[in-house]
Design goal:
Elements lengths: L2 E4 L2 E4 L4 E7 L8 E7 L6 E6 L6 E3 L7 E2 L9 E6 L8 E8 L15 E2 L3 E6 L1
Parallel strand pairs: 2-11
Antiparallel strand pairs: 1-3, 3-8, 4-5, 4-9, 5-6, 7-8, 9-10, 9-11
């Protein structure tokens, strides 16, 4: 499956953005879909993930209560990341990724993913 992330931009602290990850076909519903981010000078880190079989989302502690994964738009083969109450430290390039694995101990690790979108820049000003 091929992925394309979009929806990034410049927003003030406290604002919101919704990122989209469009998959090339409907098979994405079988995949575990995740969001990662990479800030300048830092390693890529896990943000959020949702397993295809359960639709139960999991979040990094740093975004819990502020970020959510809304219901996917199956007609458009698209999953989303709703980001509210944004902080300057959320500034990063955000990537969506897909894998067929659903093992909880591995789906927060970027090495588990073999399909990646190109990334979309999110900048939060203070």
């Amino acid at each position: 499956v091929q992925l394309q992330a979009s929806g990034g931009g410049l927003v003030q602290a406290g604002g919101s953005l919704r990122l989209s990850c469009a998959a090339s076909d409907g098979t994405f519903r079988r995949y575990t879909m995740a969001w990662f981010r990479q800030a300048p000078g830092k390693e890529r880190e896990f943000v959020s993930v949702i397993r295809g079989s359960s639709n139960i989302p999991y979040y990094a502690e740093s975004v819990k209560g502020r970020f959510t994964i809304p219901r996917a738009n199956n007609a458009k083969n698209t999953v989303y990341l709703q980001m509210d109450s944004l902080k300057p430290e959320d500034t990063a390039v955000y990537y969506c990724a897909a894998t067929l694995t659903e093992i909880l101990s591995t789906i927060r690790k970027q090495t588990s993913y073999n399909h990646w979108g190109q990334g979309t820049q999110v900048t939060v000003s203070s």
